[in-house]
Amino acid sequence: MNEAPPRRGDEQFAGQVNSMFDRISGVYDRMNRVMTAGLDRTWRARAAERSRLGPGQSALDLCCGTGDVALALAERVGPEGRVIGADYSRPMLDIASSKPTPAGSAAVEFQWADALDLPYDDESFDAVTIAFGARNLADLDRGISEMRRVLAPGGSLVILEITQPRRQPLKGFFGLWFDRIVPVLGKLAGDPSAYEYLPESVRSFPDAESLAGRLDRAGLRHDRWTLMAGGIIALHSAVKRIRGAQRRNP
């Protein structure tokens, strides 16, 4: 019997989301390719580029899933750099760990971690990325606070996420695709509840402008956001403020 989709606000939300991703880990990559016509690879690559990482630097890819963004970051930092891919789902981490590391890349460390209580020291990373995972956090503001904490001053935070388009015809297409077609694909994948949760998680997530404001209020300097796929995908970047910079540059 299929489980009911997770509902934000339920006390069991985090555990339900984790269980859901455990169940769909085996079809996760394939379903992403089908639902996005393969464009998710391009979006993830752009997120890695937006990190502004260079050789020898360090990165944390949070809610790394099956590891595609972490592996892209590893190419950017090279063999002298360090990349950790962290996720709450162990089956997802198992799949990520099985993927080959591109030649000339850092060896990615895939580790279990709770995004709301990261096991890393303050200011440990030059960049933190999270792709299609922010809307799954039980407490978004706490998650942003943790990402900021482990980010070095001047470092980049990159968030890639689905967002609701505001204008027609994309707004109508969004409703048709997520309310009608995605649940059908979920049935074909063998887990309807997981793909019933997807549209609800997008609707309960802040729009691009609201997310930018939350990043600023968290002590980050929001850099910009880019809308892709006609406004369905938002790529945000922010920078952790350097202490004393405001006093030096009034």
Q: Strand tally, please?
A: 7
Class computed from helices, strands and strand pairing: alpha/beta
- Total number of helical segments? 10
As a percent range, the share of strand residues is 15-25%
Based on CA atoms alone, the radius of gyration comes out at 18 Å
Average predicted confidence as pLDDT: 88
Instruction: Please write the string of helix (H) and strand (E) elements.
Output: HHHEHEHEEHEHHHEEH
- What is the topology, as strand order, of the major beta sheet? 3-2-1-4-5-7-6
Helix content: 40-55%
Residue windows where pLDDT falls under 50 for at least 5 positions: 246-250
The rough form would be described as globular
Largest sheet: 7 strands, mixed
- The N- to C-terminal Cα distance equals 61 Å
The quaternary structure here is single chain
